[in-house]
Amino acid sequence: MTAPERAPLGAALALLIALVALTGPLSPVLMAVVAGALALLLGAAWPDLLELPSPRGTRIVVAGSGIVGAALTVLAPERLTPVTSLLVVTAVGVFASFGHQMLRSDRHDLTSSLTGTVAGVLLAAVASCWAIAQEISTAAGGSLLVTAIATGLAATLLLDATSLPVLPRTLLAVLAGTGITALLAVQLGAMAALPAAGLGALVAVAASCTHLLLGSSLVAREPVAALGVAAGPVATAGVIAHLAAAMLT
Asked: Quick check: helix, strand or coil at residue 197?
């Protein structure tokens, strides 16, 4: 999968999130399903993208942490908030990363395997923040802020697919993503212009930087590894969506 083919996959995932956010009362559950799918993509791609030893165990730990975290955002007992549940799952995922290394028969590249697996657990877990953000928005009366963020994210990742040199391509993606997020946040989320512009810039810069970082891997163009390059920026933006929903709705 070539570089121009990676970003459209990320853009498609972001557009899927934007559409799910419009589905009304069922949207938190559907968003948790999407978050689980993101975790599955990251789990499948992560050991290939980072060229980690013992890829099977890493896939199980990373994908399992993200999928369980996504499920608990909507199925957690009443005494546990979705954020608390996600933190617990993340902690268990980090512990499982250590357990995975202890169970390996071949201990070569132990440090890189451990740190890489922990990083994958954290990234897969934060994908569930999309579900938490949507739950907050739905409880606040159906705010469309998540839709605005996801649409701006899709624009950023789509423009990252152009054949321009890195610097102008990134600047174009950031400017377009910022503008679209800000416009929709004002129109759909009833935000003031200045905070909306700041939110748009945060989403666009975070997505572009994550895409550039993951795409810099030597194997980033391989078909399986490219799934992680596409899903990573979308998962990362979930944290921003959660904070925006909690603070601005």
From this structure: helix
- Tokens at 193, concatenated: 């212009």
Residues 106 and 46: their CA atoms lie apart, in Å, by: 19
Rounded distance between C-alpha atoms, residue 183 and residue 203, angstroms: 13
| Helical residues (DSSP H) of the chain, grouped into ranges | 3-20, 27-49, 55-75, 82-103, 110-126, 129-139, 145-159, 166-189, 193-215, 223-248
pLDDT of residue 71: 92
| CB-based contacts of 168, cutoff 8 Å, min separation 6 | none
Residues of the chain below pLDDT 70: 1-7, 77-79, 142
- CB neighbour list of residue 182: distance below 8 Å, 6 or more residues apart: 152, 193, 196, 197, 199, 200
- Look at residues 5, 1, 17 and name the one whose alpha carbon lies nearest to residue 234: 17
- Give the model's pLDDT for residue 77: 65
Residue 164's CB: how many other CB atoms inside 10 A? 14
Q: Which are the contacts of 196, defined by CB distance < 8 A and separation ≥ 6?
A: 181, 182, 183, 185, 186, 189
pLDDT computed for residue 4 by the predictor: 45
Q: Which pLDDT score is estimated for 164?
A: 81
Could you tell me the maximum CA-CA distance found in the chain, to the nearest angstrom?
A: 57
Nearest to 48 by CA among 62, 65, 34, 66: 62
What Å distances lie between residue 47 and 154, 223, 228, CA to CA?
25, 13, 10
Mean residue pLDDT of the chain comes to: 90
